Amino acid sequence: MTRVIFANNGENAIHEKFVLKKNFSSVPFFRYPEPTSQLLRNKIAIYVGCAPSQVLCTNGSDEAFVLLLRLFTHPQEEVIICPPTFFMYEYYANITRSKIRKVKRLYDFSINTNSIIKHISRNTKIIILDSPGNPTGIVIPLTDIKKLLQTGIIVIVDEAYFEYCGITAFPLLKLFPNLVITRTFSKWAGMAGLRVGYVLASEKIIADLGKLKLPFNVNSIGLQVALSVLDQKTEYYKRIKKVIRLRDQIIVRLRQIDGVYAYPSQSAFILIQFRPEIAIQKLISALTKVQIFVKYIEQPMLKHCIRVNFSYPSEAAYFVGCLERIIENQKKLH
Ligand SMILES: Cc1ncc(COP(=O)(O)O)c(C=O)c1O
After folding, report:
1. Which domains does the chain show, CATH number per domain?
2. Which single residue of 95, 136, 263, 298 could bond 109 by disulfide (Cβ 3.0 to 4.6 Å)?
3. What's the 160 CA to ligand 1 centre distance in angstroms?
4. pTM for the structure as a whole
C-alpha cells in the first residue's frame, strides 16, 4: 500500500488511536448542544488559571477571529498583521470587510514593533500576532507584546500552538484589557476535524463576543472530546513531548543535508529553507509524486522555503530520505 504523508497542514495524528478507544457513542447528538459550552469553559478556566467568565468557546479559532473582527472593526477599518504570518488572517478580514495592513517582520522573523507603531492610524483597530508564529515557529517576546498593548489598540495573540512551547501572553491579561488570546484544540489535541477553539479575554470582551456568536457554535462531540482531553491532559502532554522531540531531531538531521537549512521551531512544524540553486517547485512536485504533501507559502521572504510537520518518526524518516534523493538528482542534472 502506498502511504500518503500529509506534512502540510500542521495536523497532529499522535492521539488518534487513544481517542478512538474512548466511547463517545453515549453523546446524545439528537439533542442540541448546551449553547454556552459552560462545562468546557469551566474546565478551560482551570486549565488556564482564570475565571470561566474570561473564556468563550468557539467553532475552532477560525470562528474566534471572525467574531473578534466583527466586534472591533467596521468595514474598511484596519487590522495590522506581520508577514510571514498565518495566511488565513487575510481571509477572515475579507469576510468581515476590514482592511489588512502588512508590517513586514525583520530578517530573523522577529516582529518590528517600531514599524508597527508607526503604521498605527486612527483607522487601526486590531493588531494580530501569532505566537509561536505560523510558519516562522518563533515566539514573540512578552516585552514586544507589552509595547504594542501600551498603544491601547486591541492586540490579538494567536496561541494556536501554545502547547508546543508553553509560553503565553496570558499574565499580561491582568494589566491590559485590550489583550485577547485565541487558542485551539485543533493542533496539540489533534482535534482539527472537531472544531473547538477558545478565546481568553476580559469579562467585558467575552460577554460582547457571546452576543455575536451563533447559539450552538460548538458541537456535542467536539465538546465531549475536548472535556476528555483536559481530563487526560498528562497523557496528551506526554505524547506531544514525543512530537516535539521528533521535530527537534528532524531539524538536526535536515541541517546535515547540503543546501538545506531548518529553522529552529517552538511550534508543531519546521520551516525549511533551500539554497536558491535548488529548484523548489520541482522539489515539491517530486515530493508529491511520492505522496508527500508539504506546504509552500507564497510570501516574498519564503521564496525558497517549505513548511512540514510530522506525528511519527517513520513518516519523518521517509520524508528525509526522499528529500535527500531528490536534491541529489537535481545536482546530477546540473
Ligand atoms: C497560527 C494559526 N492560528 C489559527 C489556526 C486555526 O486553527 P483552528 O483549527 O482552531 O481554526 C491555525 C491553523 O492552521 C494556525 O496555524
Report:
1. 5-13+234-333 (3.90.1150.10), 24-232 (3.40.640.10)
2. 136
3. 6
4. 0.95
